[in-house]
Amino acid sequence: MTVSAVRPAVPLPIIIVAGCIIAAIGFGTRGSFGLFTLPVTADLGLSREQWGMAMAVQNLVWGIAQPFAGGMADKYGSARVLAVGGIIYALGVLGMAFSTDALSMTLTAGVVTGVGIAIASFGVVMAAFGRVVPAEKRSFVFGIATAASSAGQFIFAPLGQGFIDAFGWQMALVYIAVLLLLIIPLSSALRGRTESVPGQADLPFMQALSRAWGYGSYRLLVIGFFVCGFHLAFINVHMPAYLVQCGLSPEVGSWTIAVIGLFNIAGSLLSGWLGSRLPKQMLLATIYFLRAVAIAAFLLLPVSEITAYAFAAAMGLLWLSTVPLTAGLVTLFFGPRYMGMLYGIAFLSHQIGSFVGVWLGGYVYDQTGAYDLVWYLGILLGLASAAIHIPINERTDGNFALKRA
Predict the structure, then answer these.
(1) Transmembrane region positions (predicted)?
(2) For the domain bounded by 3-193+204-402, which CATH number is listed?
(3) Which helix (H) or strand (E) segment is 3 a member of?
(4) Is the dihedral of CA 133, 134, 137, 138 positive or negative?
(5) Which of 11, 163, 215, 331 could, after both became Cys, cross-link 172 (CB 3.0–4.6 A)?
(6) First CA to last CA across the chain, in angstroms?
């Protein structure tokens, strides 16, 4: 499939900088939600499972909405989509601050915020980058966008904890909602949408998805991405509370999340750089295998500040390093024309994994008083995902699946 991109309305460096700031704000906000686990559950009288369900619904709604957000960005342009997403995201976080029970928290933190994250996500940003960046540089630029998301997590984790300590959890959410509104002016730099050349198929959503799903390597990629979501969501939401349970302070929990974000900057950049030089599927298999090893080592060693930060550093290197490789394979298989939508489908699988990881973490804790069973399951899933990625065929002409019949 041959695709041409609209000439950028603004210089490419400005597009990349604006997109990276959007990714940092959006992902940094989402990455700070685990800090609210203890104060919210204590103040509102929620069980750990009820809070986990709200976060699980958020991840699931995010995943369901992501393909449609990507499809709208492909068709109507990223700027409009991101601006609307920023407004919805801010409203959802603001609604969290005024929630009073499990149902209202599920609606605000789960449904509204989940839709906002999807529409203002780094997935839409990467679709914009894929439209204007040359093919040989896409993996690296995707790595830059992912690293920016991690920088947001590094910034927002201590910032969110500082807000909570100084103003309480409700006002902390209000201030974060205000910061989310910065997405609106920044989105104007990402104007434009992908255009087709004459004779190219312009397929409806379901037809494009059907042809893509017929490609076996894409199916394996989508299935394997489930595990990434399981790992990230469980650790992000439950790790701070787990460390407090082990006798460490809430500040250690917040800095653990921050360390993950800091080291993920290096991991994402390295992943993007290696993805343009080595087989992406083998890099993905290695990442999932190393995650399983890191979790096993963390469980075998006594929990302390040193082991917590060491585990956070190791997981940070492996945290979002899957994203530039996964996005790179999607564009390699099918080209940039449907990248937003088809990466969104892969991300839906990621978010189903997130739903399971967050909810199961809360459920297992309420039933057993510990998170051990979910940690062990994370090890097994990491090994399984490593095995699934090995057979993926990294072929440069995989975009045949979307040619006009």
Answers:
(1) 12-31, 81-99, 105-128, 140-160, 166-186, 220-243, 255-275, 282-303, 309-334, 341-361, 373-392
(2) 1.20.1250.20
(3) strand 3-5
(4) positive
(5) 163
(6) 11
